[in-house]
Amino acid sequence: MSMKQQYGAQKDSYHTQIMIKSTIILIVCIILTLICLIPILILLVNATHSHTELAENPSQFWFGSSLKENMNILLNKLPSDAGKAMTRVARQYSSVFNVGQGYLNSLIIAGFTTVLTVFFSAMTSYGLTVYDFKVKGPAYTFIIAVMMIPVQVSSAGFVRFMYSLGLINNFIPLIVPAVAAPAVIFFMKSYMKSSFPLEIVEAARIDGCGEFRTFVTIALPMMKPAMAVQAIFAFVANWNNYYTQNMILKNDKMMTVPIMVSKVLQFDKNVNYGVNYLCIMLSILPIVIVYFVLSKFIIAGVALGGVKE
Amino acid sequence: MSKLKRTLALLATLAVTSTAFVACGDKKEDSAPDSNNNSVADNNSVADDGNADDGAADDDAANDDAADDGAADDDAADDGDADAPAASGGDISLPDTDDVLTIVCWTDSDLSNMFDIYTPVQASEVKYQNCGGNGTEASTQYANYLNSGDDVDLFVAEAGWILNYINDDTMSAPLSDLGISTADYADAYQYTVEIGTDNNGVLKGASWQAAAGGWAYNADLAKEYLGVETEEDMQAKVSSWDNFKATAEELKTATDGAVTMTVSLGGLWQAYSTALNAAWVDGTAINTSIAADFTAMAKEYADNGYVDPSVEQWSTEWENYGKDGKTLGYFFSTWCLGEGAQLDTNCGTAGNWRIIQGPQEYFWGGSWLCVSPNCNTATEAANFIRTFTCNADTMEEYALYSGDFANNKVAMNKIIADGSNSNSSLGGQDQFAILADVAEGIKMSDSISKYDQNLKDTFLTTLKENIKEDTDAIVEKFKAQALADNTDLS
Amino acid sequence: MASAAQSRIKSISYAKYGYMFIAPFFLVYCFFQIWPLIYTFILSFKGNQSNNEAFVGLDNYTTILFGQGMAAGAEATRQEFLQALGNTFILWFGNFIPQILLSLLLAVWFTDAKVKLPGKGFFKIVMYMPNIITAASVAALYVSLFGDSEYYFVNSLIANMGGDPVKFVTDPTISKGMVMFIQTWLWFGNTMIMLMSGIMGISPSLFEAADIDGANSTQQFFTITLPLLQPIMVYTLVTSMIGGLQMFDLPYLYHNGSNFSKNLETVAVYIYYNFNKGTVEQANYGYAGAASIIIFAITAVLGSITFYMNRDKDEIAKKKQRKRAEKQQKAKMKQGGGLTI
CATH code for C86-280? Predict the structure, then answer.
């Protein structure tokens, strides 16, 4: 009886302990959530305020009514009576931050790189898994070794080389290198090792299926989960890539979203805070929307990356 | 054993690939200049096709190695122009194969004004490409842009770094290729022509503005704290650097330090450095005496609160000093004075502003239109340059429209004589009348170098960050950083 | 042994497909990575600015590392490079430590079956979110919010509360702190999820046994979770370190005015600044090249050390054994004709 009581008391205190712990954790998590979200929320709020409002009171906490006006400035669609000063602001912003063009360029680059990265990485890892050839071991060792090389170490030579090939202001130096993505190959190779039975290839050969066809029609569909995960990361990484794009792209017809944002940040006259915030907001909007739509999948993908290691 | 084998195999592959590529690369490096030459030649042949009556002399003029010929060609053009009316000009040797005139710029405010009043004569479209941001950033972006093979007909270069571009024949073509010669600039302020001329005496850049600077002040504050009623009285109070300092002290006492004399070190530097009348670079040696001179002055101003050294030029803080009535005045160049430019935005509603010459006649920046060797809209480009740098009528229109001091004495004197300009930000004052004498007196051609932008930026940043240290230490730090950035200097 | 011979022929004839499948990777990698790297290496032996065509031997290296070289500013160059190197490590360290601690704590909490936490999925999603946002935009956002004076969001709040403006952007120390904070903000969610999957990979029976033995959660953490998490922690360390060495967007864009902040100059910024200064005559390709090669060497050394330290001794012994067995088997097979595909 007394033992049971004691046990019950212990259990109670154990429960309270867990309750306390859970509450603390919940509070910490809420605080962290706020830290993650508040900058973005302020960004959204400020993008709806006019320059004058923000200049008078930079710390706005609720939405304003100037989103449309800011958008008109950014798109250089001001009414003709807007005044010369405002027209100057609009022209300056629209000459650097052409939002439609930026989305299109970023989409082209991110889209093509994603396709190339995923396809060729799958192909390379397939080659390294399925076939047996002399340099297979060294080749894989090489891929793992170069995985760690930062882009910066070759960028001086890269720019000079592209310059001499006449590939400045060209998407090629941004897209084609995506064929070689060592980290993605590493991931896919380990994925294939665990979930791609080699017997299938053997069976396909007996059926008279060509090697490349086997890869495309049989192996690729089986690697879909790994490819999807890597596709998302490749897309996000290339959409966000500022460093390489900024070195290669100079023409304003080829500007991508990150470069546009960096240029807006450099204006030293006719600065309009509301439009500044709007530009930043527009630059992150597509990727944030995509993220929230695919979030569960992305989180699972990140976790998968962790397991594979 | 197998590990060793593998490593060896790896090394061997690496070695093979790398040697293959090195070989490849060497060949490429060798062939690169060739292909460059070829493309220049191609351009010429296109030019010849376009203008059948062009002589072989023009061909040489466009060639990189024939700078002397180019100068000779200039002379020839001069002779021709002496008889003909200036507007008709010389022969255009660059092609007319495109119908879009593309101008690369790093700030669109001036071009925006020009485009408002410009009517194309031949091109179907006239547009600008904003390399964006600011002059410092632009000077790093331009080179790759101009060599990218993308359509560039004209580009805008700033005084701080124009020499890098006009002295490089792969970046810029002589204006004579558009039929424009030095003789077309008889009415221009001579320093703009001198700066636009490269080391071989070839005219490569034409400026639409004479970037004279003045001192704009808040008349309400001046009246309240200094008892100054008119511009003449104010000018008397700041007519020299000694007077400027004395007035700053007076203002400090009157306002208990709440109002500074001026805002940033950047503006102060621009005015003060003109007085030193010395180049940043002498041969290859950095002239630190000007840095030391200004540092001593800046430290005194900062210590006494005449200026806020922490404020970055052109920043939000800088802008708000004027708006909030926290400063008596700014050093403003001519391109700060138009509607929507700095004067307009900074003075806000806080006061009633006026411009005077200030303690020092000085210039600030200035932009030149240069011709890309790949210019393929030659007729339109030539017309554009003439409209804004030669033609007194259109330049008068431009000056009145933009508030910018146009680079044409005839036009400016006419405006001043007619009294046709009145600047609403300055209570209807005509800034041109104030700046005309300054523009006349500018002599900057001896003192600019291609390192100016970098040296000025480095100096002002170092000064701003280390203002508490003593003068020698600041100058030493500046020199060290400048040398690290520029291996050519000593 | 006809069938063995047949399969032997088969294995030989298929090898060429192996080369074909990996060829695109190697061609592209050599063209866009290896050759530029070699080119950078060549550039590191050439001069700077107007001297850019001349071969100068090791001058750039001695200048950058020892302050001894042809240029008058050799010593200043060394100082700038070393400062950039120092900044890189400070910034990396300053974001890695809080990031790994926070992520570890959260990962342990989130995987603790005993803790009842509502909305776990939501928290994970929100905490990972900063990681996908464009770094350039993040820099722009933080500069806009944390500007130096009361004309910006945070400082206007401080001013309203009667405080003096804090120089979040230009103060050498505070701005470094800000970059560390932003970097942590960007990456802790990612690290947390990686560590979570690592913890979930640990067999639950280990924790159950520890529970029965009466170990509390702290003890369990230090005796079970942490040691078993070591490989993934090392992986995080290595990736974060490589990421840290190439930290560029944030330090380069987090500034006021027209130039990047020298207080935040990392090696990546140093390299970029030196080769991207306008015309070839203005740029310092030699210094940029030498700095690149030095960073390459540092990466190689750090990477090898980490992997060397991390190798599991038992695992290696096992692997060796396995390899020996494999070799023997292979030898046997060779005698009988290869059977591998």
Answer: 1.10.3720.10
